[in-house]
Amino acid sequence: GFMTRYERKIFDDLKSPHLKYWVPFVWFGNLASKARKEGRIRDSVDLQALMNEMNKYRSWCSLLFGYDWVGIPLVYTQVVTLAVYTFFFACLIGRQFLDTDQGYQGHDLDLYIPIFTLLQFFFYAGWLKV
């Protein structure tokens, strides 16, 4: 709905080895220049402000394209995975409740199911897998 059928055909027929996010910006620049020549944009300052905002948006898209272009090295994912699992192993031991007032002989750890720690683990581990 953002393009006419003719524009969509031109866009699809354009051969580019990379993403074609820049094509609408070129079209916009050409249309804005044409509008200035036809008098639809009355002042060159307005045209320049319009083009500056468009260039700012285009640079943000370029930055986003750069993030997509460069992959995350495998060692980072391995370090994060190790950190998540180590953190939750420490939480599993560290968040256990031990009532020292009871004075049970030989019971140094109170083994119960830490429900909220498990929920936190499933959330972080699921997020890690995404």
Give the N-to-C terminal Cα separation: 31 Å
User: What is the radius of gyration computed over CA atoms, rounded to a whole number of angstroms?
Assistant: 29 Å
H/E element string? Answer: HHHHH
Taking pLDDT < 50 over at least 5 consecutive residues as the criterion, the unreliable ranges are: none
Tally of strands: 0
Transmembrane segments: 82-98, 110-127
GO molecular function: chloride channel activity
Function: Forms chloride channels.
Subcellular location: Cell membrane; Membrane
SSE layout and pairings?
Elements: H1 5-13, H2 23-38, H3 44-69, H4 74-94, H5 115-129
Helix pairs in contact: 2-3, 4-5
What does this structure look like?
The protein is mostly helical. It folds into two domains: 5-69, no CATH class; 74-129, no CATH class. It is 67% helix and 0% strand. It has five helices and no strands. It has helices at residues 5-13, 23-38, 44-69, 74-94, 115-129. Helix 2 runs antiparallel to helix 3 and helix 4 packs antiparallel against helix 5 (115-129). The radius of gyration is 29 Å and the shape is elongated. Belongs to the anion channel-forming bestrophin (TC 1.A.46) family. Calcium-sensitive chloride channel subfamily. Forms chloride channels.
